[in-house]
Design goal:
single chain, 258 residues, alpha/beta, Rossmann fold, 2 domains, six-stranded mixed sheet, three-stranded antiparallel sheet, 9 strands, binds adenosine-5'-triphosphate, binds magnesium ion
Length: 258
């Protein structure tokens, strides 16, 4: 398929002066077209580094990282990247931030205006067209960032802890929004999170990484219905997935003292 992701035997090191830091160690991971994969792993294990390779920000690595069968050497609107902190232009209005992609591509207004208006509404941003980023809440700013990425109709969506800075309720709403957008847009999605609940709630598969240098410790298919509601957290299956992932991250049951 055009938008599958194939990561094969990828290793990556950074050198800081004399010191070489091994960050990714023979990582292999396939994401099928339209699949939603969450990556969880300890801080510093190379999650962002891996996502940047997929996006095409960084080409200095060993192994192979293909999106849609191609090795990319630069980022593209077709591989939408959502950062943890909303990367908005402070001097542009909400509307101008959202429509940046098609305007920069020189598309005629008629080609994107209706879609931009629809996305404003999907993101419940109606009435904020002329507001500037400093006038938005964290959740609103993150929805502007998401709309700015979605207007380009990316075939892959790469999200790096996008809700890490949001409060619990806003986070739940954003999770539901992204889950349904993922189904509607049929994007291949890689979503990085520290939050095991978020991973089990959203993913088709959860990939657990080791401490640095990051390796794939486990790749767990989440056999829960699509478009999960928060009720799913009460199911036994949900609890089992969560326990399994936490245990892989080193938070297993404490050993009994003898
Ligand atoms: N450009 C860089 N130059 C040198 N070292 C880097 C660079 N980018 C990342 N690193 C190092 O690579 C390691 C992995 O970083 P990365 O940002 O991928 O971790 P992460 O898993 O995303 O962590 P977190 O969960 O805290 O975001 C870290 O030790 C970091 O210091
Ligand atoms: Mg990171």
């Amino acid at each position: 398929m055009a938008n599958d992701i194939r990561i094969t035997d990828v290793s990556k090191s950074f050198s800081n002066g004399d010191e070489v830091i091994d960050v990714l160690d023979h990582v292999s991971l396939d994401v099928e077209a339209g699949e939603f994969v969450c990556i969880v792993g300890p801080s510093g294990c190379g999650k962002t580094t891996l996502l940047k390779l997929i996006a095409g920000f960084d080409t200095a690595y060993e192994g192979e990282c293909l999106v849609g069968g191609q090795r990319h050497s630069s980022p593209s609107p077709d591989r939408g990247f959502v950062f943890q902190k909303p990367a908005l232009f402070p001097w542009y209005s909400v509307w101008d931030n959202i429509t940046l992609g098609p305007r920069a591509a020189g598309k005629a207004t008629a080609q994107w205006k209706a879609e931009a208006a629809r996305l404003m509404s999907v993101m419940t941003l109606d009435g904020f067209e002329t507001s500037f980023p400093y006038q938005l809440s964290g959740g609103m700013a993150q929805r502007v960032q998401l709309a700015r990425v979605l207007i380009n109709q990316p075939s892959a969506l790469l999200m790096d802890e996008p809700f890490g800075a949001l409060d619990y309720l806003t986070r739940l709403r954003m999770q539901q929004l992204v889950s349904s957008l993922h189904v509607d847009y049929s994007m291949t999605t890689v979503f990085i999170t520290h939050d095991v609940d978020e991973a089990v709630l959203m993913a088709d598969r959860v990939v657990v990484m080791s401490t640095r240098p990051g390796r794939v410790l486990a790749d767990i298919r989440i056999e829960l219905p699509k478009r999960r509601s928060v009720d799913v957290v009460r199911s036994a299956q949900y609890g089992e997935y969560k326990t399994q992932i936490l245990s892989l991250l080193g938070f297993g049951e404490p050993e009994m003292e003898h």
